[in-house]
Design goal:
- There is one protein chain.
- By secondary structure, this protein is of the alpha+beta class.
- The protein has 13 helices and nine strands.
- The chain folds into three domains: 179 residues, Four Helix Bundle (Hemerythrin (Met), subunit A), CATH 1.20.120; 105 residues, GAF domain (Beta-Lactamase), CATH 3.30.450; 132 residues, Histidine kinase-like ATPase, C-terminal domain (Heat Shock Protein 90, 2-Layer Sandwich).
- It has a five-stranded mixed β-sheet.
Amino acid sequence: MLKRSVTSSLARALFAIVVLSVLASALALLTLSASLRDAEAINIAGSLRMQSYRLAWDANTGSTDLPQDIRNYQQSVNAPALRALQRDYVPDSVKERYQALQLSWQKLQPDLLAGNTLHYQQQVSHYVAQIDHFVLALQHWAELKMKLVAGASLLGFIAIAALVFWTLRLVRQQVVTPLNQLVLASHEIERANFKYGLLNTALPNELGVLAQAFTHMSGELEKHYVYLEQAVKEKTSDLQQANRRLALLYRCSQMLTSPLNSGRAYPQVLEQALEHADLYAIELHAPPQCQIAAGKVIDHLEWRSLPLDAASGSQAGELRWQALYTEPQLMQGLASMLTRALQLDRAEQKVRHLLLMEERATIARELHDSLAQSLVYLRIQMTRLKRVVSNDASPAQDIVGEIDRALTEANRQLRELLTTFRLSIEPADLGTALQQVVTQLRPQTEAEILLAGSPSQQHFTAQQQVHILQIAREALLNAIRHAGASQIIVHYDRAANGDNLIEIKDNGLGLQPPHERAGHYGLAIMHERAKSLNGQLNIASNPGSGTVVTLQFPPGEV
């Protein structure tokens, strides 16, 4: 219930201010209206002195203007401005002096009319003194009214100022301060802070009722806000978990579909899963293509696994992991993604292998049908030329011999090139691929060719396999043809940094500088092939102590 309404309090205060203003103004107006003829009265009273002396002059000189001057004086004494001094609010001192002045005139007037001017002349000085006192009384009365006006105005101003101050204080206490508190409270609620300072609910006006309603409303809002905040946290946690799962699968998909070497993608995918899926360890088994592990194995923790099903329905591998808790959907999605990536890699390897083999077979056929036939024709013509050239023409015989040797060398290089292009490039690990080269070259030399190395499940693309086998084949052919070695050792292993390492060492004569002869580009081509593998080719040789050719390159596809 409202005990003291703000609007009624303000209305009363404003009404009181208006009443005080009206009273002060009315009092001032009344006082001023009563003072409208003060100047006239003072002026008339002052003129009485001059008229008194004129009457004395007329009486003394016997002027004919005396009757008229007496009538004028009578009119001045009884002027309305002076007769208004008989009112009740006029001070008694003014009334008494005016009455005394009239009585004195009533006594002097008969003497003047009777021609007894001596008595008038004797009393005129006393009569003028009465007039002076009357004028002074009028002056004091006028000053008093001005003081009354000033005093009334001052009192009215003080009363109005006090009432305004009291009204402002009331408004500040019961309106402004509560409103400011409500505004601050609304800002705090806007920032979801419901523990703001308590509002003044004890005010006996509308703002007190509003504060009570606002406090109740904020309490209800806090309850709903806490409930909604909890619900939002739960939904946010679910969405964050789903978003984290989708983000992880998306990153893994990007890695697996990247045009870069997929052999680097699988370890990165497992590292991502290990980091973002809260796993202790994770392993990918897809023999013979890849065997990858990441994380630290916990001995007493159980392994969980999912099969990697092939397109034919058979199991292509297995994804295993250790964790206290995992999301089944996440791991199932990761397993499906890895399965598709492995299938795509195998299909792509087969396509690349078939394309490479087809290209190599085409090049071999073209070389055989064009360049090889041309060389055979030149050999036949050279034989005919030898028969025609006389044995006595020594310079011609020398030239024919040089051409014959060049043709022989060209035929040999072409045969080797055809043999290289017809080399079978099958998907295999490093050891198996090198074994193909060694098996093919053993019949061409009496030197012992040994192959040694650590077993590896690593696989290479067809293009990488061609570069590796060609470098090994060229190094072996150089050792067979030029080193005069009795033993050639081909060793393959992993370097300390994880790179592949192939070493071909012989016990022959060593490489004689310069390394390249005119028209022979074998070593340059070997270096180019090493660069294509992102690796390095080093040749170390001392005359009489053999040659060591070392090829080091980063891992290929797994």
